[in-house]
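Quick one: structure for this chain?
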Amino acid sequence: MKAMGRKALAEEVEAVSHKAVLLAAGHGARWILLPDGRVILGRYSYNRGLSKWSQSDFTTHECTDYREDGGGCVGAVIFPDGVLQR
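Got it. Here's what it folds into:
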């Protein structure tokens, strides 16, 4: 997240990491559930694991030094009511 310019969000996650939950969903999706009910989409792959959203709803960044076929790192925050933070 720091490499994507989301340093403040990364620090926030670090501060509550002992209470947060990492969900590894199929096809490479990684979600972080925060204790306040927000969810962070950290990573997805091949446009799967995005639930009700589509790839165009997010700004996607490379997760690694090598290029992947689809997906990437996102760092998007979703509020408990399902609204994507803009």
